[in-house]
């Protein structure tokens, strides 16, 4: 047997493409999903952004310079301070010393408003991993180490400015990240559980069961979202403690948000229940529960992940909207929506624009999760072009 020489017009690039195609055909399902996902550059960047946001939420106590409830009336609506890295060493040179500049505070005799003027003579040294206000890490461990803060805790330190009570907006935004992002994650988890059960029953059983579940879904989706939120949120007793309100908001959002996931699961079950491997499992005497969990459900994992990443932004926006309108979470709980309540006045718009920092965090988180969801949705079907 003789080996045929490659054709003259068959270049190396074509051979590489053929080789890669052969490798992809031999790869597993999750390997093909990852190979396609990493080609979506925006989704990869969004993955790192989302991971960073959840990292901030996980270590909120350590990353925040202060407790979110700590206030100082002397620094109401104090503007943000910028970090400097070098100071004069007194010999005509400069030495490395992270710092912020203090303020010269004056009271306007007409409006009785504090006027903050940066004073270059007030150099406030700052550092990383510095001791400060004590806190309980995750409510378990007593600690006083902070990622960044002033070396002298009595000196002002407001990287993102202060609010109407003189509280550090950066610390409150970091702590609000945990509440807002956990509501999105836990709320979608509850919606996923409800949607998978009802969507699976609807798609697998069909018939009258399918019609009833679909009519319920259509009824929920036909009700205007904001009035439905307002009605359910207004039904909560006003004397409930903040933690109970937090879980009530989760349940409300889950009862509204499960319909889209149920539709996705139902559609996949309708297409899978006539496949050869499902029919073979039925003929082999496999129970319905085992058939669904061991044979049909694994083929839905990639689509479920895509549905989750696209549903979390809706949960975050729902919580932010309810809290902004005063019908969701309330102080002392700190969330992005609660923080945005301080922007409902003219002074915040004209004189304290830094109060919109939590709103910028909402936009960043929602965009990153949507781009990530688009990438996962495209990668969920690695054979599509």
Describe the 3D structure.
This protein has 385 residues and is an alpha+beta fold. The protein has two domains: 81-157, no CATH class; 173-379, MetI-like fold. The protein contains 14 helices and four strands. It has helices spanning 12-26, 29-37, 41-58, 60-63, 169-205, 207-222, 225-234, 242-272, 276-283, 288-296, 301-324, 336-339, 346-351, 357-379, and strands at 84-88, 94-107, 114-137, 141-150. A hairpin with a 6-residue loop joins strand 2 (94-107) and strand 3 (114-137). Helix 3 crosses helix 14.
Question: Secondary-structure blueprint of this entry?
Answer:
Blueprint: H1 12-26, H2 29-37, H3 41-58, H4 60-63, E1 84-88, E2 94-107, E3 114-137, E4 141-150, H5 169-205, H6 207-222, H7 225-234, H8 242-272, H9 276-283, H10 288-296, H11 301-324, H12 336-339, H13 346-351, H14 357-379
Antiparallel strand pairs: 1-2, 2-3, 3-4
Helix pairs in contact: 2-14, 3-5, 3-14, 5-6, 5-8, 5-11, 6-8, 7-8, 8-11, 9-10, 11-14
């Amino acid at each position: 047997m003789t080996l045929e020489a490659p054709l003259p017009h068959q270049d190396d690039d074509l051979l590489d493409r053929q080789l890669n195609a052969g490798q992809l055909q031999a790869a597993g399902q999750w390997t093909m999903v990852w190979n396609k996902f990493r080609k979506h550059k925006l989704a990869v960047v969004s993955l790192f952004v989302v991971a960073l946001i959840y990292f901030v939420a996980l270590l909120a106590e350590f990353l925040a310079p202060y407790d979110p409830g700590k206030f100082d009336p002397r620094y109401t609506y104090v503007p943000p301070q910028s970090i400097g890295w070098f100071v004069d060493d007194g010999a005509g040179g400069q030495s490395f010393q992270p710092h912020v500049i203090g303020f010269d505070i004056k009271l306007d005799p007409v409006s009785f408003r504090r006027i903050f003027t940066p004073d270059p003579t007030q150099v406030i040294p700052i550092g990383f991993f510095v001791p400060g206000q004590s806190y309980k890490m995750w409510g378990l461990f007593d600690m006083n180490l902070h990622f960044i803060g002033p070396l002298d805790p009595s000196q002002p330190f407001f990287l993102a400015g202060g609010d109407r009570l003189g509280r550090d907006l950066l610390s409150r935004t970091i702590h609000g990240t945990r509440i807002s992002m956990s509501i999105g994650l836990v709320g979608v988890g509850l919606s996923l559980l409800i949607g998978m059960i009802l969507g699976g029953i609807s798609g697998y059983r069909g018939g009258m069961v399918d019609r009833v579940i679909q009519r319920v879904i259509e009824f929920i989706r036909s009700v205007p979202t904001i009035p439905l939120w307002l009605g359910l949120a207004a039904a909560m007793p006003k004397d409930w403690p903040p933690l109970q309100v937090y879980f009530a908001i989760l349940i409300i959002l889950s009862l509204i948000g499960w319909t889209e996931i149920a539709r996705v699961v139902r559609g996949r079950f309708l297409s899978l229940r006539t496949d050869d491997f499902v029919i073979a499992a039925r003929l082999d005497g496999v129970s319905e529960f085992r058939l669904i969990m061991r044979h049909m459900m694994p083929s839905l994992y990639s689509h479920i992940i895509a549905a989750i990443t696209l549903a979390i932004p809706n949960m975050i926006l729902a919580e932010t909207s309810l809290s902004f309108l005063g019908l969701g979470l309330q102080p002392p709980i700190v969330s992005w929506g609660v923080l945005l309540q301080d922007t409902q006045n003219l002074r915040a718009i004209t004189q304290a624009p830094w109060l919109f920092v939590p709103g910028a965090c909402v936009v960043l988180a929602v965009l990153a999760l949507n781009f990530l969801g688009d990438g996962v949705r495209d990668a969920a079907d690695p054979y599509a072009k």
